Amino acid sequence: MARTIAATTTRNEDAEADARRQRRRDRRESIESLVVVVVGFLVLSLEAEGYVIPTGSMAPTLLGRHKEVQCPQCGWTFQVNAASEVDSEEGGASGLRVRSGVCGNCRFPVRVDDAPSFAGDRVYTLKTDVSLPGLGRSEPRRWDVTVFKLPEDPEIRYIKRLVGMPGETLRIRRGDLWRSDLDDATPPVILRRPPRQSLQVNIPVYDDGFRPRSLAGDPRWRRWTGWNEPAPGTYRAAADDDWRELRYRHLVPSPEQVEAVAEGRLPGAPRASLVTDFCAFNTDLAPQKLDDVRVATRPWFQPHWVGDLALSLRLELAEATGAVRIDLIEGGVVNRCEIDAAGRAILSRDGAKLGEAAVAIKPGAAVDLTFANIDDRLTLWVDGVLPFGDGLAYETRFEEPPPPTADDLAPARVAIRGTSAVVSRLVLKRDVYYTLDPAEPDSDDLLEYRLKPPGALFDLLADPARYAGLRWRKPREYPIEPGRYMMLGDNSSWSRDGRAWTRVDQTTPTAPDRGWDDSGRESWEVPRSLVIGRAFTVYWPHFQPVWPAVRVSRDLVLPARPNVEAVRWIY
Q1: Could you give the residue ranges of the DSSP H alpha helices within 123-273?
Q2: Under 8 Å CB-to-CB from 198, ≥6 apart: which residues?
Q3: Is the link from the previous residue into 212 a cis peptide, with omega within 30 of 0?
Q4: How many Cβ atoms are within 10 Å of 553's Cβ, its own excluded?
Q5: Cα(392)–Cα(74) distance, rounded to whole angstroms?
Q6: Between the CA of residue 16 and those of 13, 20, 107, 397, what are the distances in Å?
Q7: Gap between the Cα atoms of 541 and 537, Å rounded
Q8: 14 pLDDT exceeds 80?
Q9: Which of 55, 61, 150 minimizes the C-alpha distance to 538?
Q10: Is 56 helix (H, G, I), strand (E, B) or coil?
Q11: Using a CB cutoff of 8 Å and minimum separation of 24, what contacts does 447-453 make?
């Protein structure tokens, strides 16, 4: 017994020491970022300019006006869009009040009408054609978060992500972006983000460190199962000659089940469903807008299956034997990372080896791993290091996107063989899903579910065979002429961007007095002359209220401190 207590105490002390070191690193990085930004603001103001993010079209990368909420069910902190509380013409209160949001982690609704709303992130933008030490030249590049003048009305400034380059055709297909050379007959190729940016834009699906209180007593609702769980969120498995799996099932309560819990009734048995493009930021509801079916159904109607996932975890192997593997399933295909105790990592897809590399893993020492299957590429991080560089790409056909299968209801697994191990800090995230149109589903068959009870959509998401049979709209194509670009918002399902603009600025032979631009640009194109620069840092997030947090006015809580933890680079 004494040995067990001592070992437990040591592990707790190690965990506390790790947490202290991480907090020091976070504080140091935030302070360094803040110092760099202040110097840039004071010394280099002729080459850079500050902007405030007004809306949520770039969430979660950049936040417009929003409410920050801690879920009373699971304790997870998330943001809810509050742009509707501000009058876009005058910048003052609009009279609307966001009533509720939905936690992106446990899916329970949260009342937010009494929570203050915070102004959007303030970002610093490096103007085009300027080169600064450490930041490089600001010539427009793919994936830059870019500030530009709206082609329809150049008096308005917009901020989106530059995704389409001059001289190419951009295509959107089932959530991914593809490109080919303009007027080229060769098949399109998928666009892949840099890994660092991928980590920043990925959206949480489930963090196992935050579980809903109302379902905690029912083991059927445990999303990770298969190993012993000596403490919540920590899993242990003993050595075995066969693979021992810890498996994730995507168990999301439907709105009907959530309502049952609120009324003190049993929610019924859970059933696994497909991971979708659900985003907590888009679940804001105001009482005045409940008559609009499209808005009223938004908290649960985010129906696009997302197979591009990333799993993070902390691993501790006990012996210098055996192996561990991480599996991510997409379209029934197993994408795998296998690491043996000697530190050899092998990435494979559907049983075919893509490559191997040495990784720094030692028995008895904890290591943080992230394995991602995003944009047809497998990427591995080991304590923040990329042993495979940007990752190992594989090819899929543009014409035949893989449909979901029953295996996609349990899309993540961790397994060990020949060694004992402890796994903790399990966090599953998904990639951005680019829709064909803002606020509209990519399948006409999905439209009818807006008018049905939420349970009907959840029935569909629990049946991959039915979901695979939906009729999908054809991919959209956007030819981009030389000297022009295309911009999209990270919050694709709720972003007014190049997919939705018009050509009201264009003159035509039949209406020469209408419009002021005779360049002939297409509605989605942004001319180079309208690009202002790229946003490279959030230099002033909203203030953070601190105790005793006295409400002075509707959206002012004092005392408050600068939220330096949220100062960050933009990738």
Answers
A1: 195-201, 255-262
A2: 310, 372, 374, 375, 379, 431
A3: no
A4: 8
A5: 36
A6: 5, 6, 30, 48
A7: 10
A8: no
A9: 61
A10: coil
A11: 449/301, 449/303, 450/293, 450/294, 450/297, 450/301, 451/293, 453/256
Ramachandran area for residue 233 (φ above 0: left; ψ -120 to 50: alpha; else beta): left
Instruction: Name the nearest CA neighbour of 198 among 376, 29, 347.
Output: 376
8 Å CB contact between 293 and 453? no
387 closest CA partner among 364, 362, 412, 369: 369
Nearest to 401 by CA among 468, 309, 334: 468
Helix orientation angle between 454-461 and 255-262, rounded to the nearest 10 degrees: 120
Residues whose CB is less than 8 angstroms from the CB of residue 110 and which lie 6 or more positions away in sequence, other chains included: 69, 71, 72, 73, 100, 101, 102, 103
Tokens representing 418 are 């020949």
DSSP sequence for 115-152 = SPPBPPPEEEEEETT-EETTTEE-S--TT-EEEEEETT
In the prediction, which pLDDT does 553 show? 85
147 forms beta bridges with: 159, 533
Whole-angstrom distance, CA of residue 521 vs CA of residue 509:
15
Take residue 270 and report the two structure tokens written for it.
């859970």
Its sign, for the CA torsion 96, 490, 156, 542, is positive
For residues 214-219, give the mean pLDDT.
91
Any idea which residue has 């902190």 for tokens?
77
Per the prediction, the chain carries an average pLDDT of 88
Q: What is the mean pLDDT of residues 232-248?
A: 96
Question: What would the pLDDT profile of 357-406 be if each residue is shown by its tens digit?
Answer: 999 888 888 999 999 999 999 999 999 999 999 999 999 988 888 999 99
Q: 459: Cβ–Cβ under 8 A, 6 or more apart, which residues?
A: none
Do residues 372 and 379 touch, judged by C-beta distance below 8 A?
yes
In sequence order, which ranges of 288-384 are alpha helices (DSSP H)? 293-296
513 Cβ neighbours under 8 A, 6+ residues apart: none
Q: For residue range 148-163, what is the model confidence (pLDDT) as tens digits?
A: 999 999 999 999 999 9
Beta-carbon count within 10 A of 206 CB = 26
Q: What share of the chain is helix, strand, coil (3-state, %, to 5)?
A: 20, 35, 45
At residue 429, the pLDDT reads 98
Both tokens assigned to 569: 């680079």
* DSSP 8-class letter at 474: P
Q: Cα–Cα distances in Å, from 51 out to 116, 120, 147, 149, 296?
A: 22, 10, 9, 13, 31
Question: How far is residue 176's CA from residue 375's CA, in Å, rounded to a whole number?
Answer: 7
Spatial contact of 533 and 126, defined as CB atoms under 8 Å apart: yes
DSSP label of 213: G
pTM: 0.90
The residue whose two tokens read 């302070």 is 31
